[in-house]
Amino acid sequence: MKLFAAQVEEGKEGKDGNLSVGPVYRNLLSKDEFPPPDPSMTTTWDLFSVAAKKFPGNRMLGWRKFVNGKVGPYVWKTYKEVYDEVLQLGSALRASGAQPGCRIGIYGSNCPQWIEAMEACNAHSLVCVPLYDTLGPGAVNFIIDHAEIDFVFIQDKKVKELLNPDCECASRLKSIICFTSFTDEEKEKAAKLDIKPYSWEEFMHLGKENPSEIMPPNSFSICTIMYTSGTSGDPKGVVLTHETLATFVRGIDLFLEQFDDKMTVDDVYLSFLPLAHVLDRVIEEYFFKNGASIGYYHGDLNALRDDIMELKPTFLAGVPRVFEKIHEGIQTALEELNPVRRRIFHALYKYKLGWMNRGYKQKYASPLADLLAFRKVKAKLGGRIRLIVSGAAPLSTEVEEFLRVTCCAFVVQGYGLTESCGPASLGFPDEMCMMGNVGVPAVYNELRLEEVPDMGYNPLANPPRGEICVRGKTLFSGYYKNPQLTNESIKDGWFHTGDIGEFFPNGVLKIIDRKKNMIKLSQGEYVALEYLENVYGITPIVEDIWVYGNSFKSMLVAVVKPHEETTKKWAHSKGHMGSFSELCLLDQLNEYILSELKSTALSKKLRGFESVKGLIVESRLFDMERDLVTATLKKKRNKLLEYYQEEIDQLYKKLSAK
Prior knowledge:
The protein has 658 residues and is α/β, with parallel strands linked by helices. The protein contains 21 helices and 29 strands. Helix 1 packs parallel to helix 9 (278-289), helix 2 (79-95) packs across helix 7 and helix 8 (242-256) packs across helix 9 (278-289).
């Protein structure tokens, strides 16, 4: 058995009311001690400024311009061009009264201006605070007030929201700087609030006319306060220092150095995950440090494939839903092939998978299968993709396996939180034993499990299971202005994530549950809701599912958003016509989905009380517009219950009457 993580401390059994804790695991690169930091890279300003001097002519930031209402090809700014503009923005902030430590908000979609504003903050020891409206109603108002923000860089589409009378705290702002320019009406509104509005060009000109020496931060200076998309309550401000972010980037460099395919200046990353979240932020910091290129999506996630084909990225990171859509698209294309070609595809798939399971690297497992079939799949991802990373939620094993075999690229999962400054664990490329798992501890942190007695999880049992705890050099400093919550979350130096994990003997971690998403049914049985959603989610007709259980009831119910194409095929075969929303109202469809869920439960050997007994069919995906999911598409269970409460109550009455 190949070992992937080192066990550096033994587990301990709880005494005198304490909880049992499992062994401490480290990355093999940190088995004896954490590697020394790079003394020339102790802040995020170092990461960018050194790269700008080392790679001045390299393409850094790319975006697509709209020409006559249509999106055009990518245009680029070099590292030198970005660096010069960052100096002007920083000077403009200082000329406007921003002092070191001042909090600067950035509000808008991913684009070059976002990054230039961020780097201007880094150059002058200012604290970058991303503003994100999908953290919940009133989140922007809350963050501006809570973080005491003085200046905001803003996308033109967001100006209306910021100057809305409901955003009471906007009046505390001194200036707002638009990524493009303001309308006359917006300027008038800002003036009434005593806010100075600047177009991007005006602010750049202000900096050019008032040059200021940079004031680089120290390693222990606060770099950013990132507010997390919690599933309930006010957003929490996660404080990350420059040292934390720079150390994380150093760790990724060391981790990737182990593998044959090295990072190069020719690598290109497609950025569409929100920059207001830590995963995209640390990926971009890593690319900047290495002089590589970032291309931004043009703002429409539904047209992401067009950006992929235009940019031809080498690296893609996303949430499971993105990869599920890619998987569904390929499966749909397969269904349209003639039966002979479809059988050939599946035979080649099985053949290549067999060799990969024997330990062959994916690119050597079957070059013939890649040539005959899978290069076409890779072509749908731009043709140059080398690495795919999935995070934020578990990716189903079926989808991960399919991507590993057909994309002709590395596919790995990672696990992390804003509090861990991105991935606290990451999978190894080409290791099939990591399928469905989230890899091993990152280079600069340690992981262990802690007992959760109420849920029956014991880190000293076989297999070891418990709450995942993180410690190390890439951990956040605390929650901004919330020492009580900080002390509740960090105990004896260990951050308690609330996620339930299982360690395998080779040191690989698997996420199996969420501490707060365990409910006890009326007959006394515990049910892991997220686990069941992952199981039922592989049912072909299911596009998304929310499983609900009430502790006063003995059975589970669910809300299902069926897959539209599959639903229409089923409907036409039964003689049903109508729009998708009309089909979702059919009792026969409800019964059919329920029978399909039952088949999945049987095939996955779920226990009787884990079966869904009744369901509501929903024609729309759970979305942020209705505040049903977070920005990373995690389900807001309290909001879902609130939204569907009446229908659920009726469903339980109907089931009780049977």
